[in-house]
From TrEMBL:
Protein name stated in the entry: Bifunctional 3-phenylpropionate/cinnamic acid dioxygenase ferredoxin subunit
SUPFAM superfamilies, per the entry: ISP domain (SSF50022)
Claim: Cell membrane is one of the keywords in the record: no
Chain ranges of the Rieske domain: 8-103
Keywords: 2Fe-2S, Dioxygenase, Iron, Iron-sulfur, Metal-binding, Oxidoreductase
Species this chain originates from: Gordonia aquimaris
Gene3D superfamilies, A to Z: Rieske [2Fe-2S] iron-sulphur domain
Enzyme class: oxidoreductase
CDD domains the record matches: Rieske_RO_ferredoxin
Domain of life assignment: Bacteria
NCBIfam families per UniProt: PRK09965.1
């Protein structure tokens, strides 16, 4: 898990339907949040294989398939489940508050977000 020292508001739960992912604006490296049937997870948005955006991928249960070369990752653990990716992606704690998804990240990763 990445170093954690700030929480950011990723989005409203209304903005993230079950079975979908969303890239959070203003974090570096980019972070994506995913809705797995009402459970929310945050991982690095950048595929560990060739740096494609995982939030553009296909969500199936608690996995996401990268759209570029079809590696799959667990959105729970960040583990690379299938080739061509072999390295995991980072994961981040998530909490819900007032209908919004909050993600914990390293402060150095937050470049254009208001901190809470
Ligand atoms: S960039 Fe994701 S599998 Fe190649």
């Amino acid at each position: 898990m990445a170093d954690i020292d700030t929480w950011i508001v990723a989005c409203s739960t209304d903005d993230l339907d079950p079975g979908s992912g969303l890239k959070i604006a203003g974090t570096c490296p980019p972070i994506a949040v995913f809705n797995v049937e009402g459970e929310y997870f945050a991982i690095d948005d950048t595929c560990s294989h060739a740096e494609y955006s995982l939030s553009e991928g296909y969500v199936d249960g608690d996995t996401v398939e990268c759209e570029l070369h079809f590696a799959t990752f667990s959105v729970r653990t960040g583990e690379a489940l299938t080739a061509p990716a072999t390295d995991p992606v980072g994961t981040y704690p998530v909490r819900l508050e007032d209908g919004h998804i909050h993600v914990a990240a390293a402060q150095r990763c937050v470049i254009a977000r208001s901190r809470i």
